[in-house]
Amino acid sequence: MWPKLLTKWYEENHRKLPWRLNPAPYHTLVCEFMAQQTQINTLIPYYKRWLNQFPTVADVANANEDTILKAWEGLGYYSRARNMLRTAREIVTKFNGEIPEAYDELIDLPGIGPYTAAAISSIAYGHDNAVLDGNVVRVLSRLFKISSDPRKAEVKAKMMELADKLIVPGRPGDFNQAMMELGACICTSKRPKCNICTVASKCRAFRELDDPTILPKKKKPKPKPHFQVVAGLIWRDHEVLIAQRPKDGMLAGLWEFPGGKQEQGESFEECLVREIREELDI
Q: Taking Cα atoms as reference points, which of 39, 37, 19 lies closest to residue 29?
């Protein structure tokens, strides 16, 4: 069976990432929160600093939001940091500081969806829950030559069913990480290394398509919007004016120099005057 072969490949070839050295539940939780929308190499120094500052889930729960956001600074998508704080507090109050191992309990925590719940339960606790992230979707699309759009609910459900059937009993964490590692390092989006892939002989896209990279089916990217934005540096004596953003919306609760988007027909100066009046009433 190729899933066992793939798991053996992972055992011998996986990257020595810090959370893999000690896949404790809390370490896995931190890693999975940080890995959402972030490249692995980017998050490694943040992960190490976070564990130094917050060695346990209780340390996170006892911190205030500003401290958490400061520790997260630079990783972006700050709702993840707030959700980790809320999750840590729920773990302390509802589970006596012990991260739950049951999938159904994990998925009820703030910021934890199906992938993160499956990752924690399988990697940290050894439960047979398959993961389905972007890397796994790409691997499954090519292995089974799935040409339908994986963003559609019925296609995603089919892939989840496939992943559940493939999981290696007794080694779900290693199998899940093997699938993700294969997608991250070998079965990549643009230049897959099919010539060294340990499961290439089982891959329908490799055997039947001239170009396996046409799978999974990709959505045409939307054009990126462009905005003109102005900000003001306002100071008196040795003090500089900064303002806190609203508690909801983009970059919620973070601090910034006052300003905003330029409207049609405005000069930068007019925009700044209007924005400061609207935001700060000054």
A: 19
